Amino acid sequence: MKKVAVFTSGGDSPGMNACIRAAVRGAIYYGIEIFGIRHGYDGMIRGEITPMKSYSVSNIIQKGGTILKSARSKEFRTKEGRAIAHEQLQNLGIEGLVAIGGNGTFTGAQVFYEEYGIPTVGAPGTIDNDLYGTDYTIGYDTAVNTALDAIDKIRDTADSHDRIFFIEVMGRDSGYIAIQSGIAGGAELVMVPETFTPLEEVIETLKQGWNRSKTSSIIIVAEGEEGGATEIGSKIKVIFEDADIRITNLGHVQRGGAPTAFDRILASRLGLGALEGLINGQKCVMAGIVNNQLVYTPFKDTITKLKPISDDLIRMVRILSV
Amino acid sequence: MKKVAVFTSGGDSPGMNACIRAAVRGAIYYGIEIFGIRHGYDGMIRGEITPMKSYSVSNIIQKGGTILKSARSKEFRTKEGRAIAHEQLQNLGIEGLVAIGGNGTFTGAQVFYEEYGIPTVGAPGTIDNDLYGTDYTIGYDTAVNTALDAIDKIRDTADSHDRIFFIEVMGRDSGYIAIQSGIAGGAELVMVPETFTPLEEVIETLKQGWNRSKTSSIIIVAEGEEGGATEIGSKIKVIFEDADIRITNLGHVQRGGAPTAFDRILASRLGLGALEGLINGQKCVMAGIVNNQLVYTPFKDTITKLKPISDDLIRMVRILSV
Amino acid sequence: MKKVAVFTSGGDSPGMNACIRAAVRGAIYYGIEIFGIRHGYDGMIRGEITPMKSYSVSNIIQKGGTILKSARSKEFRTKEGRAIAHEQLQNLGIEGLVAIGGNGTFTGAQVFYEEYGIPTVGAPGTIDNDLYGTDYTIGYDTAVNTALDAIDKIRDTADSHDRIFFIEVMGRDSGYIAIQSGIAGGAELVMVPETFTPLEEVIETLKQGWNRSKTSSIIIVAEGEEGGATEIGSKIKVIFEDADIRITNLGHVQRGGAPTAFDRILASRLGLGALEGLINGQKCVMAGIVNNQLVYTPFKDTITKLKPISDDLIRMVRILSV
Amino acid sequence: MKKVAVFTSGGDSPGMNACIRAAVRGAIYYGIEIFGIRHGYDGMIRGEITPMKSYSVSNIIQKGGTILKSARSKEFRTKEGRAIAHEQLQNLGIEGLVAIGGNGTFTGAQVFYEEYGIPTVGAPGTIDNDLYGTDYTIGYDTAVNTALDAIDKIRDTADSHDRIFFIEVMGRDSGYIAIQSGIAGGAELVMVPETFTPLEEVIETLKQGWNRSKTSSIIIVAEGEEGGATEIGSKIKVIFEDADIRITNLGHVQRGGAPTAFDRILASRLGLGALEGLINGQKCVMAGIVNNQLVYTPFKDTITKLKPISDDLIRMVRILSV
C-alpha cells in the first residue's frame, strides 16, 4: 500500500483531531503517502482531497472538532455517488481508507468495499460510547467530563435554592454519558434508555431524599429516555407543586472542547492502530480497545451487536445516593 | 454597632461566598459580633440565625453558590412577616444587616428600615450586571466566562459541520452577559433586549457571512430578547431551509461554578465595604465599585435607575465580525 | 461485621473523597456502622475517630484532597504505636478497616493484621499509578489531565517564542504521568525512570526537529529521571547555546483539583468494592480494577510486584512526533 | 493612511491574538490594507511581512500565544537594524504600525518614529499589569486566573496534609499577579516587591495562624521579591523545623492558555482603539483603558511613570486572613 486517505464522518467528537494526527504521522513514519478528505463522503465525491504532511497536523492534538470537517452524506448512499467517489480516489491512486466515525460511516465503507474493493479500517469517533468492539469511543471521556462540569455547577445553584433539577444529557440510544456523569456528579437518580424507569421510581426517590433531609436533588435523564427531561420534569412538577423543580438540557456543548488526556491517548492509539491495520491487510474492521488491548472487529459486528451498560453501574447509583 | 448579620437573597451568583467571608472576617477584625442568616428573609422570619466565626468561612472563597442558602420570600412582603423578622433580630440584639442580593432584596431592606429602623447596607449579587451604582455585580464575570466556555465548545462543532447556532444566554432584562460573551466568543451577531434587532438584520448577517465564505456562524440571544433563541432560530430555519441551524439554551449552568479571580476580589471588596459602611452609619445603600472606587448608592437609585449597555460594545460586534 | 472504619494515608490524591463517600454510603446501605479516622494511622493512635453518616459525605465527591486528612505516621511503625491504635479501635468496637493509600499504608495494615487480627481492605489512592493489582490508581487520571493542561498552556508560549521546554512532572519511581501527559501533550520526547534515555537521544531529537523545521519542542521529564528536568535541561543549554531553552517543574499542583469523571467513578467502585470485600471476609488485600473487573490482590503482591509501562506507549511517542 | 501593519513583541500574553484580530478586522472595516509582521522587530528587519485578510484571523480569538510570534530583537536596537526595517516597510508602502507589547517594544517604536517618522500606536500586551496608562494590560486577568487555579489545587493538598506552602507567581518588578491571586486564593500573606516584608512578618503570620488553629497556610511570593519563594521558604524551614513546609514555583504556565472573557474584550477594544488612533493621526502613544474609557498615553509616560499597587488591596489581605 503506497497511498491512503483519512477522513471524519458523522457527528464530530473531541479527539478526532488527535486520531487524524496519529494516522497521518503513522503513515509518514511507515513511508506511506497520506491524503486528507474534507467533509467525509461528500468531500470524497466532490474531490476535496489534499496531501497531508507532518506539519499539517501540528498543534491540533488539543483541539475539539475536526480539521477535516465532517458531514452526513446523502449522495454516498446512492450508487452514482459512490461511483464518483471511487473515481476520485482512483485518480489520486488512493488504495485504502482510515474512516473516523460511527456505524453510519462504517456501513458506507462496507458497501464501498463490496463494490470497489477499497479497504477501510475504522476508528470509533462518537461521544455516545455505544459501539460494539471497543470499551471506549473517541470523545466519550471528554463528553462525560463536560457534562459533569455542568452538573457540578448546577449542583451549586440547586443547593443554594433547595431545588430539584432534571438535567438532560446526550445519548439517543445509549445511557453511557448519563450513567457515568450521573455517578460522578452524585446524582440521586439516572434514567437511561436501556432500562425502563417508571415514574413511581422518580417520585419515590425524591420522597426518600426529603425523608433523609436532602433539600436538593439532581436527576440525570439520557436524551433517549422517553419524553426526555422536559416531559418527565413537567409530570413531576404537577405531582409536587410546592417543590422548586427546574429542567435543563445540556445540548451541543457536550460535543466540543479540548479532548481530555484519556481521549487524546485513545484517539492516538486508534488512529495509529487503524493505519497499521490497513497496512497489514485489514479491511472492513474497526480498531478498538478491549481490556486495554488493540483489537479489530468486523463492521458487520459493530453494526449489529449491542454493547450493554454494566448493571454494576446502575446498581451503584442507588447505593451511593443513600 | 456591636452585632450585625449577613445574608444572601434572590437568585444566587458565584462569589456570594467570598462576599460573606469578607463581611464575616471584616466584622471579626473590627471586634463586632456577626451572625449568618440562612435562606434570606425567610430564614430571618424563621429564626435560622447562627453566630459566624472566622473558621465558619474557611475554605469557601472558591465555592459557587452560597453557604447561607438563598430564597425569594413571600412572607417578608407582608407586614406580619416583617414584624416576626424584626422580633427575631431583636432577640439576638442584631443592629444592622449586610444583604447580598439584587433589587428585590434591597426593596425589602428599604421597607424594613422605614418600619423598624434596622439599617442595611447591600452588596450587588446577581449574574446579570444590571444594577445601577456599580460597574460590575458579583457573579457577572464568572457567568460570562461560563457562557464563553460553552460558546467556545459549540464553535468547535459548528465549524466541523458548517452549522449556524443560536445560543441563548441569561439576562431577562439585560444584554450584559450576551454582549460580553458574544464579543469574546467571536459571535457574528448579538441580540439584546436593550435594542431592537429586526429579523432582517439576522438574515442580512448570515447572507453576508456566506458571501465572505464563512461556513459557520454563531448568534447570541439574550434570554430577554423577544421570542428567545428558540423562536428566532425557528423563524430563520424556515427562511434558509438548506442551512443546518441549531438552537441551544445554556441555562442554569451559568449560575454556578467556582468564581473567577475578578469576582472573588470584587466580592471581597464589596463584602468588606458593605460591612465598613454599616459600621460607619450608612443605611439603605448598596456598596458598589465605580471607576475602581468604592461608592455607596441609595437603594432608591439602584431600584429606579437604569444602567445602559455601552454603545461601543454593540458597535464592536459589527466591526469585529467583518 | 458490625462496625468498620475508613481512613486515608500517605500522599493525598484527587478522588480520595469520592472513595470515602462510597465506603460510607456502602456501609450505611448494608446496615453497618462506619467511622472516619482523621490523619491516617497517626489519628488512629490519637483516637481521632468519629461516626460517619450519609450527610457526612454529602457534596464531597467533587472535592480534591481528603476530608479525613492524611499523614505519614512514624509512630505506627513502632510496636507501641500499633498497640495504642489497636486499643482505640477496640474501645469503639471497630472490627475492620478500609484503607485508602499506597504501599506504605498497606505495609502497615499487613503488620497490624498479623499482630492484632484486624482485617484491612485497601483502595489504591496515589497519583503515580505505580501499584500492581490495578490498571489505574485513584487520582492518576486527574493528575495527568492537570499536567496536560499545564503542557497545553506552555505550548502556547513555547510556540510564540520558538522555545524548547523541559517540563518535569511527578513520578518518583514511575513514568506513568510522564508518558501519558507526554503523548497527550504532543511532546517530542518523554524521559521516564523505567528506561534509560541517553543525553544523545535528547540531542538527536532536537536536531531532527530543527531539520523538519520544528521551531519549538517540549520534552517531558519524570521526577524520578536521574537529574530531573533542571539538570538535563542545563546540560542541553550548554550544547545548544543559541537555542532558547526553559525549564519548568509543575510541582504540587498535580496533587490537587476536582477529580475527573474517570477518577470519581473509579474511586466510587473501589471504595464500595473495598467495603464489600471487608464484609465478605477479605483481608490484607487491595481492591483494584483489572480489565474493567473488580479484583482483590494480596498486599504482599502489591508491595513486591512491579507494574511495567507499556512498550506500546513509549514507541508511540516516537512515531507521533515524526 | 492606506497601509498599516500589526506585530507582537516582547513576552507573549494571552489575548494578543484577540488584539491582532481586532486590529485586522478594524482595518478591513475602514478600508485600509493591513499586514502582519512575524517575530516582532526581528521579522520586520528580515521582511517576514504578509497581507492579513479577515479569514487570517478567524478562530484565533480563543487562542493563547500569538499567531504572529514574538521575539526580543537585539538588531533593532542598532541603527543599521532600524534602517533595514524601515526599508522593508517602505518597499510595501506601510505607513503606520500597531505594536502589541510592553515598554521595550514602545521604546523601540519611539526611536523609530524619531528617525523615520513612522507612527506607531501601541497596545499593552503583558501579563504583569505594570504599565502606566491603562488599568489593565492584555493577559493579566488570564494570568491571575491561571495562578489562582493552581493555588486552589495546592490548597487541596495543603489542607489534607496540614502544610505550609510558599508559592511563587510571576511579576519581576510588580506584585499585581501576586496580590490579586493571593486575595482571590485566600492566602495568609502576600509578598510583593513594591513593599518590604520583613521575615518577622512571615513568622508572625504563621504563628498567629497556629494560635487560631489554622493547620495549613499559603504564602504568595512575587517573582521580584528578594530571594523569591525558594530562599524565603528555606529560611522559614530552619525556624519552624517541625512544620511541613513546601515551596513551588508556578512558572511559565502563567503565560499561556485561552484568554478569559475579560482579556478578549480588553484586547479587542485596545486592538481596535490602537488602529483607530493610528488612522486619526495618533503616534508614539499607547491605547489603554482608564476608568473604563479608552485613552491614549504617550510612550514617554508609559515608560517613565510607575503604576502603584492599591494600598487597599494590601490591607485587605491582612483583614481577610483574620
Automatic annotation (TrEMBL), chains A, B, C, D:
Q: Which keywords has UniProt assigned to this entry?
A: Allosteric enzyme, ATP-binding, Cytoplasm, Glycolysis, Kinase, Magnesium, Metal-binding, Nucleotide-binding, Transferase
Q: What cofactor does this one take? A: Mg(2+)
Q: List the active site.
A: D128
Q: Which PROSITE patterns match?
A: PHOSPHOFRUCTOKINASE
UniProt-annotated location(s): Cytoplasm
User: What residues bind substrate, as annotated?
Assistant: T126, I127, D128, R163, M170, G171, R172, E223, R246, H252, V253, Q254, R255
Protein name, please?
ATP-dependent 6-phosphofructokinase
Which species does the entry assign this protein to?
Rhodocytophaga rosea
